[in-house]
Amino acid sequence: MKLRFALPVLALLSAVVVTPAATAQADPVQAADACYTWGRTLSQGASGEDVRQLQIRVAGYPGYGAVLAIDGQFGAGTKAAVTRFQQAYGLGADGIAGSATFSKIYALQDNDCTPVNFTYDELNNCNSDWSGGNVSAATARANALVSMWKLQAMRHAMGDRPIDVNGGFRSVSCNNAVGGAAGSRHLYGDAVDLGAGPQGFCALAQQARNHGFNEILGPGYTGHNDHVHVAHKSSRFWSAPNCGI
Ligand SMILES: [Zn+2]
Protein backbone atom coordinates (compact mmCIF):
# COMPACT_ATOMS: atom_id res chain seq x y z
CA MET A 1 0.00 0.00 0.00
CA LYS A 2 2.68 2.48 0.97
CA LEU A 3 4.62 1.84 -2.21
CA ARG A 4 1.58 2.12 -4.39
CA PHE A 5 0.70 5.55 -3.00
CA ALA A 6 4.16 6.96 -2.47
CA LEU A 7 4.44 8.63 -5.83
CA PRO A 8 0.95 10.17 -5.98
CA VAL A 9 1.34 11.56 -2.43
CA LEU A 10 4.67 13.15 -3.26
CA ALA A 11 3.20 14.65 -6.39
CA LEU A 12 0.28 16.04 -4.37
CA LEU A 13 2.58 17.54 -1.73
CA SER A 14 4.77 19.25 -4.25
CA ALA A 15 1.70 20.67 -5.93
CA VAL A 16 0.03 21.95 -2.74
CA VAL A 17 2.91 23.11 -0.55
CA VAL A 18 3.88 26.15 -2.51
CA THR A 19 4.73 28.61 0.25
CA PRO A 20 4.70 28.58 4.06
CA ALA A 21 1.85 31.11 3.95
CA ALA A 22 -0.33 28.72 1.98
CA THR A 23 0.30 26.01 4.58
CA ALA A 24 -0.57 28.31 7.47
CA GLN A 25 -3.86 29.31 5.86
CA ALA A 26 -4.88 25.70 5.48
CA ASP A 27 -5.29 25.23 9.25
CA PRO A 28 -8.65 26.96 9.77
CA VAL A 29 -10.13 25.11 6.80
CA GLN A 30 -9.07 21.74 8.21
CA ALA A 31 -10.61 22.61 11.58
CA ALA A 32 -14.01 22.56 9.87
CA ASP A 33 -16.93 23.16 12.19
CA ALA A 34 -20.54 22.20 11.63
CA CYS A 35 -21.54 25.81 12.27
CA TYR A 36 -19.05 27.90 10.34
CA THR A 37 -15.46 27.48 9.15
CA TRP A 38 -13.13 30.37 8.44
CA GLY A 39 -10.93 29.97 5.40
CA ARG A 40 -8.39 32.74 5.85
CA THR A 41 -6.59 34.78 8.47
CA LEU A 42 -8.44 38.03 9.19
CA SER A 43 -6.82 41.30 10.18
CA GLN A 44 -7.58 45.00 10.09
CA GLY A 45 -8.70 46.10 6.65
CA ALA A 46 -10.42 42.84 5.75
CA SER A 47 -14.09 42.76 4.92
CA GLY A 48 -16.74 40.22 4.11
CA GLU A 49 -19.07 37.64 5.56
CA ASP A 50 -16.20 35.90 7.34
CA VAL A 51 -15.44 39.16 9.16
CA ARG A 52 -19.10 39.51 10.11
CA GLN A 53 -19.13 35.96 11.49
CA LEU A 54 -16.03 36.78 13.52
CA GLN A 55 -17.62 39.98 14.84
CA ILE A 56 -20.61 38.02 16.15
CA ARG A 57 -18.25 35.73 18.12
CA VAL A 58 -16.24 38.62 19.65
CA ALA A 59 -19.22 40.93 20.20
CA GLY A 60 -18.77 40.48 23.95
CA TYR A 61 -15.33 42.10 23.88
CA PRO A 62 -15.92 45.74 22.79
CA GLY A 63 -14.54 47.27 26.00
CA TYR A 64 -16.40 49.16 28.73
CA GLY A 65 -19.50 50.95 27.48
CA ALA A 66 -18.82 50.17 23.84
CA VAL A 67 -20.74 48.14 21.25
CA LEU A 68 -19.00 46.36 18.40
CA ALA A 69 -20.58 46.95 15.00
CA ILE A 70 -21.51 43.70 13.25
CA ASP A 71 -20.90 45.12 9.79
CA GLY A 72 -18.37 42.87 8.07
CA GLN A 73 -15.68 45.58 8.15
CA PHE A 74 -12.57 44.70 10.17
CA GLY A 75 -11.69 48.09 11.66
CA ALA A 76 -9.97 49.25 14.83
CA GLY A 77 -12.92 48.23 17.00
CA THR A 78 -12.85 44.68 15.67
CA LYS A 79 -9.09 44.50 16.16
CA ALA A 80 -9.49 45.61 19.78
CA ALA A 81 -12.29 43.08 20.35
CA VAL A 82 -10.23 40.25 18.87
CA THR A 83 -7.31 41.28 21.07
CA ARG A 84 -9.49 41.21 24.20
CA PHE A 85 -10.88 37.81 23.20
CA GLN A 86 -7.35 36.50 22.74
CA GLN A 87 -6.29 37.90 26.11
CA ALA A 88 -9.34 36.36 27.80
CA TYR A 89 -8.30 32.91 26.60
CA GLY A 90 -4.54 33.23 26.97
CA LEU A 91 -3.80 33.34 23.26
CA GLY A 92 -1.19 35.49 21.58
CA ALA A 93 -2.93 38.88 21.63
CA ASP A 94 -2.17 40.54 18.30
CA GLY A 95 -5.70 41.39 17.14
CA ILE A 96 -5.28 39.14 14.12
CA ALA A 97 -7.69 36.22 13.85
CA GLY A 98 -5.77 33.16 12.67
CA SER A 99 -5.84 29.47 13.38
CA ALA A 100 -5.39 29.75 17.18
CA THR A 101 -8.25 32.23 17.49
CA PHE A 102 -10.53 30.25 15.19
CA SER A 103 -9.72 27.01 17.04
CA LYS A 104 -10.82 28.62 20.31
CA ILE A 105 -14.04 29.83 18.68
CA TYR A 106 -14.73 26.33 17.31
CA ALA A 107 -14.27 24.96 20.81
CA LEU A 108 -16.70 27.54 22.17
CA GLN A 109 -19.54 27.05 19.72
CA ASP A 110 -22.16 24.41 19.14
CA ASN A 111 -23.23 23.12 15.74
CA ASP A 112 -26.04 25.70 15.58
CA CYS A 113 -23.52 28.52 16.12
CA THR A 114 -24.64 29.29 19.66
CA PRO A 115 -21.93 29.51 22.30
CA VAL A 116 -21.64 26.29 24.28
CA ASN A 117 -23.26 27.63 27.44
CA PHE A 118 -26.38 29.21 25.92
CA THR A 119 -29.18 27.97 23.67
CA TYR A 120 -31.86 29.43 21.43
CA ASP A 121 -34.44 27.60 23.55
CA GLU A 122 -33.54 29.36 26.77
CA LEU A 123 -33.63 32.73 25.00
CA ASN A 124 -37.18 32.13 23.81
CA ASN A 125 -39.85 30.82 26.13
CA CYS A 126 -42.55 32.61 24.14
CA ASN A 127 -42.94 30.51 20.99
CA SER A 128 -41.07 28.00 18.86
CA ASP A 129 -40.44 29.98 15.67
CA TRP A 130 -39.42 33.48 16.82
CA SER A 131 -42.35 35.03 14.95
CA GLY A 132 -44.63 37.89 15.92
CA GLY A 133 -42.13 40.35 17.31
CA ASN A 134 -41.14 43.77 15.96
CA VAL A 135 -38.69 42.23 13.47
CA SER A 136 -38.70 39.15 11.27
CA ALA A 137 -38.19 35.80 12.94
CA ALA A 138 -34.78 35.49 11.26
CA THR A 139 -33.69 38.88 12.58
CA ALA A 140 -34.94 38.16 16.08
CA ARG A 141 -33.01 34.90 16.09
CA ALA A 142 -29.87 36.57 14.72
CA ASN A 143 -30.13 39.26 17.39
CA ALA A 144 -30.45 36.60 20.07
CA LEU A 145 -27.32 34.90 18.78
CA VAL A 146 -25.29 38.07 19.24
CA SER A 147 -26.63 38.49 22.78
CA MET A 148 -25.64 34.90 23.56
CA TRP A 149 -22.05 35.56 22.49
CA LYS A 150 -22.02 38.66 24.68
CA LEU A 151 -23.25 36.54 27.58
CA GLN A 152 -20.60 33.92 26.88
CA ALA A 153 -17.91 36.60 27.20
CA MET A 154 -19.49 37.88 30.39
CA ARG A 155 -19.76 34.34 31.81
CA HIS A 156 -16.07 33.71 31.12
CA ALA A 157 -15.05 37.03 32.66
CA MET A 158 -17.00 36.12 35.82
CA GLY A 159 -15.23 32.83 36.40
CA ASP A 160 -17.19 30.56 34.05
CA ARG A 161 -20.02 30.00 36.50
CA PRO A 162 -23.45 29.40 34.94
CA ILE A 163 -25.52 32.47 34.13
CA ASP A 164 -29.21 32.04 34.94
CA VAL A 165 -31.34 32.96 31.88
CA ASN A 166 -35.06 33.52 32.50
CA GLY A 167 -36.09 34.38 28.96
CA GLY A 168 -35.45 36.59 25.98
CA PHE A 169 -37.49 36.98 22.81
CA ARG A 170 -41.18 37.90 23.05
CA SER A 171 -43.80 38.22 20.34
CA VAL A 172 -46.17 41.17 20.70
CA SER A 173 -48.73 38.90 22.32
CA CYS A 174 -46.19 37.40 24.73
CA ASN A 175 -44.97 40.89 25.58
CA ASN A 176 -48.50 42.12 26.22
CA ALA A 177 -49.25 39.06 28.35
CA VAL A 178 -46.40 39.87 30.74
CA GLY A 179 -47.05 43.62 30.71
CA GLY A 180 -43.83 44.43 28.84
CA ALA A 181 -43.11 47.96 27.61
CA ALA A 182 -44.43 48.78 24.12
CA GLY A 183 -40.94 49.23 22.64
CA SER A 184 -39.33 46.47 24.68
CA ARG A 185 -36.13 45.04 23.26
CA HIS A 186 -37.61 41.64 23.97
CA LEU A 187 -39.67 42.24 20.79
CA TYR A 188 -36.39 42.40 18.82
CA GLY A 189 -34.86 39.25 20.26
CA ASP A 190 -31.76 40.80 21.76
CA ALA A 191 -33.03 41.30 25.32
CA VAL A 192 -32.25 38.68 27.95
CA ASP A 193 -33.54 38.57 31.52
CA LEU A 194 -31.10 37.14 34.03
CA GLY A 195 -31.75 35.55 37.39
CA ALA A 196 -29.47 36.20 40.33
CA GLY A 197 -27.54 32.95 39.87
CA PRO A 198 -24.33 32.49 41.84
CA GLN A 199 -23.14 35.97 40.81
CA GLY A 200 -25.97 38.10 42.21
CA PHE A 201 -27.91 40.84 40.43
CA CYS A 202 -25.52 43.71 40.99
CA ALA A 203 -22.39 41.84 39.89
CA LEU A 204 -24.22 40.82 36.70
CA ALA A 205 -25.45 44.35 35.98
CA GLN A 206 -22.03 45.85 36.65
CA GLN A 207 -20.16 43.29 34.56
CA ALA A 208 -22.58 43.63 31.64
CA ARG A 209 -21.21 47.14 31.04
CA ASN A 210 -18.04 45.55 29.65
CA HIS A 211 -19.70 43.23 27.17
CA GLY A 212 -21.58 45.26 24.60
CA PHE A 213 -24.97 45.67 26.26
CA ASN A 214 -26.24 49.18 25.63
CA GLU A 215 -29.34 48.50 27.73
CA ILE A 216 -28.91 47.29 31.31
CA LEU A 217 -31.79 47.46 33.78
CA GLY A 218 -31.56 46.09 37.28
CA PRO A 219 -32.36 46.54 40.98
CA GLY A 220 -33.74 49.96 41.78
CA TYR A 221 -35.15 50.47 38.29
CA THR A 222 -38.93 50.05 38.08
CA GLY A 223 -39.91 46.41 37.71
CA HIS A 224 -36.34 45.11 37.82
CA ASN A 225 -35.72 44.24 41.45
CA ASP A 226 -36.06 40.52 40.67
CA HIS A 227 -33.95 40.26 37.54
CA VAL A 228 -31.32 41.99 35.44
CA HIS A 229 -32.30 42.88 31.89
CA VAL A 230 -29.54 43.18 29.27
CA ALA A 231 -30.08 44.07 25.63
CA HIS A 232 -28.85 45.91 22.59
CA LYS A 233 -30.13 49.42 21.94
CA SER A 234 -29.00 52.15 19.56
CA SER A 235 -28.11 54.48 22.43
CA ARG A 236 -27.03 53.62 25.94
CA PHE A 237 -29.55 53.31 28.73
CA TRP A 238 -28.25 51.82 31.95
CA SER A 239 -30.19 51.97 35.19
CA ALA A 240 -29.73 49.85 38.29
CA PRO A 241 -29.62 52.50 41.05
CA ASN A 242 -29.33 49.95 43.85
CA CYS A 243 -26.14 48.70 42.20
CA GLY A 244 -24.60 52.10 41.69
CA ILE A 245 -25.58 52.19 38.01
ZN1 LIG B 1 -36.27 42.29 30.16
Automatic annotation (TrEMBL):
Residues 47-104 form the Peptidoglycan binding-like domain. It comes from the Bacteria. Keywords: Carboxypeptidase, Hydrolase, Protease, Signal. InterPro entries: Peptidase_M15A_C, Peptidoglycan-bd-like, PGBD-like_sf, PGBDSf, Zn_M74/Hedgehog-like. Residues 1-26 form the signal peptide. One of its GO terms (molecular function) is carboxypeptidase activity. Residues 117-231 form the Peptidase M15A C-terminal domain. This is Zinc D-Ala-D-Ala carboxypeptidase. Pfam families: Peptidase_M15_3, PG_binding_1.
